[in-house]
């Protein structure tokens, strides 16, 4: 597995990098087959250290976790524990997923935009209804079954996931509802 371990405005030593590789290898190797790469980013938020970890699996699925603590090792350990909990919860489905799917998850290109929020005066009317684009990026939309999409959303810790439905071919959305359930939007073609 390839590792990219970095710090935002903080120095990451060799001992921490070795600790991250050993611990993450143990957790990911135990619950998921064929991980391809891991991205671990450490940063500082006030007096706390923040650790964000993303692990990409060879099937195209991604697992993410984030934790914070007053010490950098504790932040990583908390993040690693969250990752382990997610992977343990989906271990059977990840293993079954590998057997059913011979090819990796198919990805389709799409554009992603960041729009400026208008924080001037919330009581005043906006000058135009056209939002200002702050950034434009390339993103990928996965071709998944509905069950795989829910699993991917949970593993990534996302509130919403847009995917291409393998069964019907159209774009679908799964999202976490306020009541804790999962919502699924399946537009009619």
TrEMBL record:
Keyword Iron recorded: no
Protein name listed in UniProt: Ribosome hibernation promoting factor
Subunit structure, interactors included: Interacts with 100S ribosomes.
NCBIfam families reported in the protein's UniProt record: yfiA (TIGR00741)
Location of the Sigma 54 modulation/S30EA ribosomal protein C-terminal domain: 130-183
InterPro entries listed in its UniProt record: HPF/YfiA_ribosome-assoc, HPF_long/plastid, RHF-like, RHF/RaiA, Ribosom_S30AE_C, Ribosom_S30AE_C_sf
BP terms from Gene Ontology: negative regulation of translational elongation
A Pfam cross-reference name: Ribosomal_S30AE
UniProt GO molecular function: ribosomal small subunit binding
Similarity annotation: Belongs to the HPF/YfiA ribosome-associated protein family. Long HPF subfamily.
UniProt GO cellular component terms: cytosolic small ribosomal subunit
Compartments in which it is found: Cytoplasm
PANTHER family named among the record's database cross-references: 30S RIBOSOMAL PROTEIN
The keyword Cytoplasm is annotated on this UniProt entry: yes
Protein role: Required for dimerization of active 70S ribosomes into 100S ribosomes in stationary phase; 100S ribosomes are translationally inactive and sometimes present during exponential growth.
Entry keywords, A to Z: Cytoplasm, Translation regulation
Top-rank taxon, per record: Bacteria
């Amino acid at each position: 597995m390839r590792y990219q371990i970095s710090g935002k405005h903080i120095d990451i030593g060799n001992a921490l990098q070795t600790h991250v590789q050993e611990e993450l290898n143990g957790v990911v190797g135990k619950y998921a087959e064929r991980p391809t790469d891991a991205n671990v980013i450490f940063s500082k938020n006030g007096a706390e250290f923040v650790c964000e970890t993303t692990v990409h699996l060879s099937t195209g699925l991604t697992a993410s976790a984030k934790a914070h603590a007053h010490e950098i090792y504790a932040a990583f350990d908390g993040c690693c524990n969250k990752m382990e909990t997610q992977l343990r919860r989906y271990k059977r489905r990840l293993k079954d997923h590998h057997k059913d799917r011979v090819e990796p998850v198919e990805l389709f290109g799409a554009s992603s935009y960041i729009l400026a929020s208008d924080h001037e005066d919330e009581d005043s009317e906006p000058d135009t209804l056209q939002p200002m684009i702050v950034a434009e990026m390339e993103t990928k939309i996965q071709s998944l079954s509905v069950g795989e999409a829910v699993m991917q959303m949970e593993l990534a810790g996302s509130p919403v996931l847009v995917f291409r439905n393998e069964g019907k071919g159209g774009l679908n959305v799964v999202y976490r509802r306020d009541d804790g359930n999962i919502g699924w939007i399946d537009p009619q073609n």
